[in-house]
Amino acid sequence: MNQPFSKKKRFSFFENIDNLFVVSVALLLMGGMVMMTSASMPVAARNFADPFHYFYKQGFAACLGLIVGFLFFLIPTNFWEKLGILTALIAIGLLALVYIPGMGLEANGAIRWVDIGPLPTIQVIDPARFLLIIYIAGYCFRQQKQVEMTFLSLIKLMIFILPACILLLLQPDFGSTVVLLAIVASLFFVAGFKFRYFFVLLLSLASVFWLLVYKVQYRLDRITSFLDPWADPLGDSYQLVNSLIAIGSGGWFGVGLGESMQKLGYLPEAHTDFIFAVIAEELGLIGVVLIIGIYALLIWRIFSISLHAMKHNRVFQGYFAFSVGIWITAQVVVNIGVNMGVLPTKGLILPLISYGSNAMTMTLITLFIVLKIGCENPVIKANRRI
């Protein structure tokens, strides 16, 4: 008698790991640590008298993400769907913490961090985004018929998404708001939202975007300054101009690892928002193409895992992986676009490469769950066949 998951271990989760997915994550993680350290050494030495300050913090965050991510990998993925509305409530609660007196921390004009006693500071958008992705994927799975038939399904979802967006805009975090709404719009389209409703949704989002930009002067300045950065190179376009100088200085093969000039105080946020410019300067066009190629490989594998899951009626898992794919794609495209001057500054980091301890930990945890979805797909397929 054939027994699924017997001693033969033919369908062991660990035997069905997506190798290309793992390789792409590993390459980005290791390469990112090298480039983040290179980009951050001048500012770390200046602010903390230790050039490896950010390396230690990022390394700890990566180790934490790998450990917690592996523990989450051991949990069956249908567990996350069962959490239901609880994930949205926790996410909104996290986003609201920054407004509690004594807890919210301000940096660079934004209140995005929470100080919880002896614990490290937390940038609340990172765990909140993870929870909201679970909720959005679960909602589209549970309300599949309504999503396909009525506009009311979107209104019901926005009961929880809209407060999250408002809390993000108040921080302010316009970039994360745009990414969150992009996830909602993309997933509804995949879930079968009627095209006429989808058109109304896109028109509504475009109207909201225009109002948010037009009514807030600094956002309008960001939008207009990238159109002609050389018109105000020492003002609103300062970051972009120095980013373009860094990219242009790299040539084909770069100036060499650790040899960037722009990171020496000329390019603000060289180890976070503008690390791509440092990569282009130090590794040149060849290095840039390699990095983009690895991201393309990772994104391809994420969407492949999503498609495989949906083909085998694992709808929630497919929606979750698809949402993660949209999130990673949006951050990569926007970050690179901002660095190259084809998009206005948004403050979105490059996943697995830019410095950001909370982002690093949550990105790895999220990718472990996507990996688990990929591992479950052939296992469940084989189990059904037996």
What does this structure look like?
By secondary structure, this protein is an all-alpha fold. It has one domain. Helices cover about 70% and strands about 5% of the residues. It contains 14 helices and three strands. It has helices spanning about 20-50, 55-75, 80, 85-95, 125-140, 145-150, 150-170, 175-190, 195-215, 215-225, 240-250, 275-310, 315-340, 355-385; strands at about 105, 110-115, 120-125. It has a three-stranded antiparallel β-sheet with strand order 1-2-3. Strand 2 (about 110-115) and strand 3 (about 120-125) form a beta hairpin. Residues about 1-10 have low confidence and may be disordered. It comes from marine metagenome. One of its GO terms (molecular function) is peptidoglycan glycosyltransferase activity. Keywords: Cell cycle, Cell division, Cell membrane, Cell shape, Cell wall biogenesis/degradation, Glycosyltransferase, Membrane, Peptidoglycan synthesis, Transferase, Transmembrane, Transmembrane helix. It is found in: Cell membrane. Its main location: membrane.
From the structure above, extract its key features:
disordered N terminus, transmembrane helix, mainly alpha, 386 residues, glycosyltransferase, single chain, three-stranded antiparallel β-sheet, cell cycle, 14 helices
Could you state the oligomeric state of the chains shown?
single chain
What structural category characterises the helix and strand content? mainly alpha
Strand order in the largest sheet: 1-2-3
Low-pLDDT stretches are 1-11
For the termini, the CA-CA separation is 10 Å
Beta-strand segment tally: 3
Mean pLDDT: 86
Portion in strands: under 5%
Helix content: 55-70%
Which H/E pattern describes the elements?
A: HHHHEEEHHHHHHHHHH
Our count of helices gives: 14
Radius of gyration: 21 Å
The major beta sheet can be summarized as: 3 strands, antiparallel
Please, how many domains?
1
- Overall geometry comes to globular
